[in-house]
Amino acid sequence: MDTSDSSQSPGVLPQLPRESILQDDGEHILVSTKGVEGSRSDGILLRRCAFSLTTPLGCEFLGQYRHLSDGLWHATMRSKRREDGKLDPPQVGIYSTELDAMVNLWANRRSFDLGNRA
Fold first, then answer.
1. Is 40 part of a structural domain of the chain?
2. Apex 72 CA angle, 66 and 74, nearest 5
């Protein structure tokens, strides 16, 4: 007998091809979006969270990286919410390689700060 709640969305993870998941620590997920129709990035950083009206897939968006036309890589990460409830502008970094952009997003996933940039 199936006891799962069919009214609850299965989330975004079952819909992602396994090879698209670059890193997964159980809370945060770094996903390649290369080849995804309509995507404006090469990868995104997500955090698992409770299902809600604002997060119907059970994940919230934290950041992204993308290849620029000049050959550099651009990464952005959402800022932490301040005590007054507002968000500061996103953290931005420019990197010489895709690996640098991915590593900086992943390494700073808990601090919401891209730190030193190239």
1. yes
2. 40
- Per the prediction, the chain carries an average pLDDT of 81
**Residue 60 within any structural domain of the chain:** yes
pLDDT one-digit tens code per residue, 28-80: 999 999 988 888 899 999 998 888 888 888 888 899 999 999 999 999 998 87
- Flag whether 54 is in a domain: yes
Q: Which amino acid is at 24?
A: D
Q: Are 91 and 77 in contact (CB under 8 A)?
A: yes
Tokens of 46: 């997500």
Query: 3-state SS of the chain: helix, strand, coil percent to 5?
Result: 15, 30, 55
Spatial CA neighbour of 113 closest among 68, 59, 76: 76
Q: Domain count for the chain, please give it.
A: 1
d(CA 94, CA 82): 25
Confidence (pTM): 0.76
Instruction: Write out the residue range of the structural domain in which residue 40 sits.
Output: 13-107
The CA-CA-CA angle for residues 33, 39, 40, to 5°, reads 105
| Residue 58 domain-assigned (yes or no) | yes
